[in-house]
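Reading a protein record of the kind used here takes only a little practice. An example makes this concrete, so a full record is given next.
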Amino acid sequence: MSSAAAAGTIGIGGDMTVNRMGFGAMRITGTGVWGPPPDRDRAKAAVRTAVDEGVNFIDTADSYGPAVSEELLAEALHPYPADLVIATKGGITRPGPGRWTPDGRPEHLREACEGSLRRLKLDQIPLYQLHRPDPKVPIADSIGTLVELRDEGKIRHIGVSNVTEGQLREMQKLTPVVSVQNRYNLGDRSSEAMVDLCDSESIVFLPWAPIQNIGGVPPVLNAARRLGVDPRQVALAWLLGRSSQILPIPGSGSPEHVAANVAAASLELTPDESDAILQLAQ
C-alpha cells in the first residue's frame, strides 16, 4: 500500500475517487507565491515525490505564481497518470507580490479557465473551483460561467473556495457543488460549521493551510512524542480523523517534506488525543 492510500479514499462528484491525502501546489512557486521557485528542478521533484507516494489529487490555481504552479505541474507530470485528478481555481488576479484581488467577472473566469487548460495540457479540468467570491460581481454571474464551461466540456465538476454557508447555499441553487476549500487547521476553526455541513452533505472539504498554527500546542506535542513523529504530521492525522469528508492538501517545495506529510496518512491518534486537540478552540 502506498503512503497516501493509508488514509483511505474519497469520492468526488460521484465519478472520481482519490486517496484521501492530497498535495497542494502553491508552495512550488517563489517567495510570496510570486514568480518561479528558487530551484525549479527541486520543485518538480517535490511534485513527483507526491505522486510516487500515492497522491492522486493535486490542487493548484492560476494565481499561484501566477501561472507558475500549473506550468510546473505539467512539466513534472505530463503525460499524467491515469488516476491523477488535478483541481485548479480561477477568480483571483495578482497585481503584484503578496496581492490577491478577486475577479469573478464572467469574461475573466472564462479566460482563466482557458489559460489553465493550456498550461496544464488538459482537455478537461476534473475539478474547477471559484477561488473567492467577488463582492463586485453577483454570485449567479460567476457560478453561471462555471456552469457554462462545464456544459461545454471544459470542466467536469464545480467546487468553491473561501465561502460562507450563505454563499454556498446560493451557489447550490445554481449547480451541484462537489467541494469546498476554506482555511481550516487545528488553530483556526473559523470553518468548523462548514466542515460539519460538508460532512452531513457528502461534500469534499479541502482545508487550506492545514498545518499552520501548530506552535507549542501541548496535545499535539504529546501525541508527536508518543508516535515519534513531527507535530506537523500529527496535525494532518488529526484532520483525517476530524471528518471522513476532509481531504488534506499539504504543500511543500521540498521532496523530503512532501514524503513526511504523506506519511501522516498512516498515523492513528487515540480518541483522547483527538478530543484534546478538538477542544483547543472551544
Notes: The radius of gyration is 18 Å. The chain has one domain: 8-213+243-252. Residues 8-213+243-252 form a domain with the TIM Barrel fold (CATH 3.20.20.100).
